[in-house]
Design goal:
5 helices, mainly alpha
């Protein structure tokens, strides 16, 4: 069964600026909340197809086949986009962690 894709619009401009390191654990946020904020900000930095792949695969829990149908591409493209996105997310989040430790 293939789920109908929800149209998600991601705006990098103002929303990303609100999710920067201005909010920290010391402001009353838990570590989990701070991590979610960092992840969301990192997702905004991905290209649209990579972001869609990550959201559908790992947040909406769609299979590779379902994502391929929704995005109108092959399973191989889904795998490739997911791999590239996860590598880029890791780099972005590592950089953010390095900045917060400085």
């Amino acid at each position: 069964m293939v789920r109908k894709a929800r149209r998600l619009r991601w705006r990098a401009g103002q929303q990303t600026a609100l999710l920067t390191n201005e909010l920290s654990v010391s402001d009353g946020f838990t570590t989990a909340t701070a991590n979610r904020i960092d992840l969301r900000a990192a997702l905004f930095q991905l290209p649209p197809r990579q972001r869609a792949t990550v959201i559908l695969r790992f947040m909406e829990d769609c299979s590779e086949s379902e994502v391929a149908v929704i995005m109108r591409c092959s399973r191989g493209t889904v795998k490739s986009q997911a791999s590239k996105a996860l590598k880029k997310l890791q780099l972005i989040l590592d950089d953010r962690e390095g900045e917060s430790n400085s």
